[in-house]
Amino acid sequence: MTNQIGQDVITANGGSDQFNFVGFGSQAIINGPAHVDIVDHSTGLTVTVNSGNQIDTISGFGHDPLGVIDLANGAGNYHSVADIMSALRSDGHGGTVLALGSGPDAGSIDFVDAAISQLHASNFAIV
């Protein structure tokens, strides 16, 4: 699915989805065990992650200075943005991965082609 001019809200409730965002101020809400592929050509994209057992990839997020990942409902079991920043790791192919837990069902967010240095504390929130 591709949005048109921004300010759209899209919710994924499990399954596999691909979203292409353009424009300004859109939001993706990801619930439950989902496999979501996001292509971010927008400014100010907010991705709300409501579960720690999803596998998400986000391309282009490192070029969105106003983009925010909201970890909600204890996703990842992080207690501060500093915890999130210290948990960022290389994905082994030029990007960054954030684990959403440590158990066998734990998911992750892979920031494709965004080095750790491109992600800042302002890109994350715990809600």
Number of domains: 1
Radius of gyration: 13 Å
Percent of residues in beta strands? 35-45%
Rough outline: globular
Distance between termini?
26 Å
Structural class: mainly beta
Helix content: under 10%
Total helix count? 1
Question: Which segments are poorly predicted (pLDDT under 50) over 5 or more consecutive residues?
Answer: none
InterPro entries: RTX_toxin/Mannuronan_C5-epim
Protein name: Calcium-binding protein
Helix/strand layout:
Elements: E1 9-21, E2 27-40, E3 46-49, E4 55-59, E5 68-71, H1 81-87, E6 89-90, E7 96-99, E8 108-112, E9 124-126
Parallel strand pairs: 1-2, 2-3, 2-4, 3-5, 4-8, 5-9
Antiparallel strand pairs: 6-7, 7-8
List keywords for this structure.
127 residues; mainly beta; 9-stranded mixed beta sheet
Task: Tell me what you see in this structure.
The chain is mainly beta. It has one domain (9-126). It has 1 helix and 9 strands, in the order E-E-E-E-E-H-E-E-E-E. Strands 1, 2, 3, 4, 5, 6, 7, 8 and 9 form a 9-stranded mixed β-sheet that branches. A hairpin with a 5-residue loop joins strand 6 and strand 7. The longest helix has 7 residues, at 81-87. The protein is globular and about 40 Å long. The model has no long low-confidence stretch (mean pLDDT 92). It comes from Bradyrhizobium manausense. This is Calcium-binding protein.
